[in-house]
Amino acid sequence: MMADIIKSAKPLRKAKYICMEGADKLPNGYYGTSVKLNWVIDRNRGIMLAHKMNGEDLRPDHGRPLRAVVPGQIGGRSVKWLKKLIVTDAPSDNWYHIYDNRVLPTMVTPDMSSEDPSWWRDDRLATARPIYTAKGYAYAGGGRRITRVEISLDKGKSWRLANIEYAEDKYRDFEGTLYGGRVDMSWRETCFCWSFWSLDIPVPDLENSDALLVRAMDEALSLQPKDMYWSVLGMMNNPWFRVSITKENGKLLFEHPTDPTGPGGWMERIKKAGGDLLNGNWGERQEGEEPVEPEPVVEVNMKKEGVNRMINLEEFKSSSTDECPWFVVNGEVYDGTAFLEGHPGGAQSIISAAGTDVSEEFMEIHSETAKKMMLDYHIGTLDKVSLAALQKGDADNNNTDTTPRDTFLTPKSWTNATLTKKTTVSWDTRIFTFSLEHESQLLGLPTGQHLMIKTPDPKAPSSSIIRSYTPISETNQLGTVDILIKIYFDSPTVPGGKLTTALEQLPLGSVIECKGPTGRFEYLGSGKVLVSGKERAVREFVMICGGTGITPVFQVLRAVMQDEQDDTRCVLLDGNRLEEDILLREELDGYEAEGGEKCKIVHTLTKGSDSWRGRRGRIDEKLIREYAGTPDERTMVLVCGPGPMEKASKEILLSLGWKESNLHYF
User: Fold this and answer.
1) Is 102 exposed, middle or buried (0-12, 13-18, 19+ CB in 10 A)?
2) Which residues are annotated as a binding site?
3) Of 450, 455, 568, 599, which is the active-site residue?
């Protein structure tokens, strides 16, 4: 218990608080907070220092080697990576204690909270068959016990009592040892854990309702309010929980307020329809309220006006070649010949589509601008019989060959790979390891190129999500492929990445589909590159990247550094926010240490800590001019990163006199 440590410190009479500080350096200093001293010495509150969890050493993301556990308080009080306990006479003055995890009064506006910092420092049962069993959990702060959970199916006019199970009570009755320590909780009355409720509801009652409402009460008679209320940060709102019920094709569809894995939930649906979530009726239109017309979804026209040519399957197949690639999108036929050189993904991307229906991957990957460009390449419509035959043929050809192949990737069909391992690099970055078809199989991806990944959309299982990635595994690695991916989680204002959040929730053993290679750049070794099918020689690479944009340039850098006979010089400008955001840092620093004049790595951070000794700021004109200020026909600039960074770097490089032919954007 933390009380044991504090007791040995013998606090003075004026001591009132225990301040805690973690080892994690954040933009506004080390994370710190405080709790009252009398809470710490009150063993009934269960405040402790933890170095293990369930018999195992803490994992790094749980605060290894030591963390505080403060039950009954907001999670921010349980400081991870704990390095200091300080006995004080006042609450912590740490930035994060003052400005984070606060519920300000409802009359406080953002301007008021900004102009007056004092706001942040103020501490003032009939059953029938068939039935459906609704289940959930409930908990209260301060160690208070949940005493009642109620369910309503008529917007709160009447309520039904749910059954509650307190898992914590099982420990009060337990006497013995657990994970090497004696357990005795018989004397403790506080409730810090979830309680679990359930209620059997007749299905006809659900059929006659449009929503299931849940509210709970604790032993202090605190009852959840009906409506959410506004506050500056929007935190800790706790109104009745609502699950909408809709009838669809003879089935009942239950919809939660939000979808934790991506966009969705009844709140988003209501907002898109123009509803007001604060109108006291969960955003639904009330009597006398004018209906709001939702914005219509505008489909991009990809059919050229006046083109009425009907094409049959025989003509389509015979006319489609690598030199003259015809392909189908949504039943329309396009000739990609004129775009073979200009396609950002290289000619191979179009050649791989030749003679096939690529509707799914085209519509998923390409922007609205790219779809508008399709008008220029539209040559006709595939007749319905031919379209059905083409789609059936594509499906039959996908992975029907059971003969073991030496190479995994194929450019015109999807191949299954199995998720076998997830490695956590940081809180938002993972390395996903997929097994190929057999242990001695090569991936078959040239250096500098990409593969496409396809996985079902969790929000719409009948649809797929497709994105391109560059693995970080060696090109000669057998049987598996490693892909470094940054997870873009949902935020209150911005939906997360569709594929990254889908991959994050995939369990081990899940199957995805892969296709490739794609890309117009390939490093052949010894300073030779292939760009859009044309070979050229370079003596230096200037690599500019940000975040996970490191992966394609890392493949090229590694190929150069691992070949002692390759004297191509490499300069890498790597931009990130924080020091912990620098990916593959150990490998990069190792190449620089061993490479001498052959390799120069420059890291720059926009929010570097006080201890950061490297460059600061974005990859701007000053930095680019320093390392790429003199255009050279034997030097090639490779760029990969967020769109704004790529756009800004291109403008800078062109202004310095670089030719577009010497710039490559992955």
Assistant:
1) buried
2) 467, 469, 484, 486, 489, 498, 551
3) 450
Q: Which of the following is catalytic: 469, 523, 591, 665?
A: 469
Place 128 in a pLDDT band, splitting at 50, 70 and 90.
Answer: very low
The single residue of 514, 518, 640, 664 carrying the catalytic annotation is 640
pLDDT tens column, 588-634: 999 999 988 899 999 999 988 888 988 999 999 999 999 998 899 99
Chain centroid offset of residue 153 CA? 35
Set out the domains of the chain in order of their start, with CATH numbers.
2-99 (3.90.420.10), 131-273 (2.60.40.650), 311-398 (3.10.120.10), 415-518 (2.40.30.10), 524-665 (3.40.50.80)
Neighbours of 63 (CB within 10 A): 22
Determine the Cα–Cα distance for residues 573 and 645; give it in Å rounded to an integer: 12
191 part of the active site? no
Q: Token pair of 199, please? A: 């209620």
pLDDT tens digits for range 515-531:
989 888 999 999 999 98
This prediction has a pTM of 0.52
Say how far apart CA 257 and CA 243 lie, in whole Å. Answer: 7
Q: What is the DSSP string of 476-503?
A: T-BSEEEEEEE-----SSS---HHHHHH
For residue 398, which amino acid is it? N
- Give the residue ranges of the annotated binding site for FAD: 467, 469, 484, 486, 489, 498, 551
Active site residue 570: no
